[in-house]
Structures are given as structure tokens and as C-alpha cells.
Amino acid sequence: MKGIYFTDRAIVRLKELSKFKKEVLVLRIRVTSGGCAGFQYLFSLESLDHSAQNSEDIYVNQDGVCAITDTLSLKYIQGSTIDYEETLMMSQFVISNPNSEAHCSCGSSFQIKS
């Protein structure tokens, strides 16, 4: 099964955030229906110690950082790369998804390949 991968920038940023908060933070990634293209990504930072864990959680570890997703979301994001971008307007984690064939103009929602 293809996994989820982090860029070096995403790894550095997650480590910085964990150091700043003085706890291990994980990036939770969910895919839900919605947005103009059909599906949208939901990112949240959670403390690994206090993360609401359930039986469907899938942990992806790379170079000392962790992402958590669920089995349904993983079907839509397998093989994706998580990056971190900073611009003058915002800073955010973003996803490059090989399973997506189209996305809305703002990039917050996507359509799955047929």
C-alpha cells in the first residue's frame, strides 16, 4: 500500500511546532465531502498524548513526525505528499495528491480521478 509522505519543509515545521508547544504534535488529515470540487481536506494539529484515538486510525511516521488518518480518508490520499508553505498571505500545510484530477481555484477542495 502506498503511504503518505512528508517534504523536508513539513517535517521541519511539525518539529518546530512540537518544540514550541513542548509536546509531540501530530498532523491529523481527514477527507470529507464538500467544497466546490466534491471533497475537501481537513488538517488539524493534535497532541499525540491527547489525540482522540479510534480503531480506524492509521499512523504514518517519517523522520520523527507523524500523521494520522482514517481508513476511508486513506483511500483518497494514498501516495500523497504533505508540504508546508509560507506566503505573505498565509502559512499552511498543503497536500499534493496523485489521486486528484481537478481542484477548485482556491485549492481547498478536489475531485477524485475516475
UniProtKB/TrEMBL annotation:
GO molecular function: 2 iron, 2 sulfur cluster binding; 4 iron, 4 sulfur cluster binding; iron ion binding
One Pfam family this sequence matches: Fe-S_biosyn
Ranges where the Core domain occurs: 4-107
GO biological process: iron-sulfur cluster assembly
UniProt xrefs under PROSITE patterns: HESB
SUPFAM superfamilies: HesB-like domain (SSF89360)
PANTHER family named in the record: IRON-SULFUR CLUSTER ASSEMBLY 2 HOMOLOG, MITOCHONDRIAL (PTHR43011)
NCBIfam families tied to this protein: iron-sulfur cluster assembly accessory protein (TIGR00049)
Protein's UniProt name: Iron-sulfur cluster insertion protein ErpA
Source organism of the structure: Holospora obtusa F1
